[in-house]
Amino acid sequence: MTDLCMDPTAESRAVSAVSSASFHDDGTLPDALQSLANLKLSQQKGLEAAEAMGEVWKHIGPGCSAMAKAVGMGDKDVRENIGEDTVEQSAMEVGEDELKAVNELPGFEFRYVEERND
After folding, report:
1. What mean pLDDT comes out for the span 50-54?
2. Is residue 69 exposed (0-12), middle (13-18) or buried (19+ Cβ within 10 Å)?
3. Residue ranges of domains in the chain
């Protein structure tokens, strides 16, 4: 919505797009919920945005926490006393269930758009 915020139809088009994404969402990716949260923030509906992000966190939180632990950043003591030996030890403590949660995280797509000089 921010790209077209001056367009009088921007909000209704954004609502329509998020509704369509939510309708087609099969629950495997949190993208539609993240878009809903972004829309709600744009509409200054913070509580509704927080609810949507809470649902996103339910979906990806366990995997994110396990990933942080897998790389040695998930334990408060590790973060406070960071060191090579500590990080390596922490990474070795990741359990099978945690690795499964990491592997269930949705993929991320990064887009690079070349600047055109017309």
Report:
1. 92
2. buried
3. 2-103
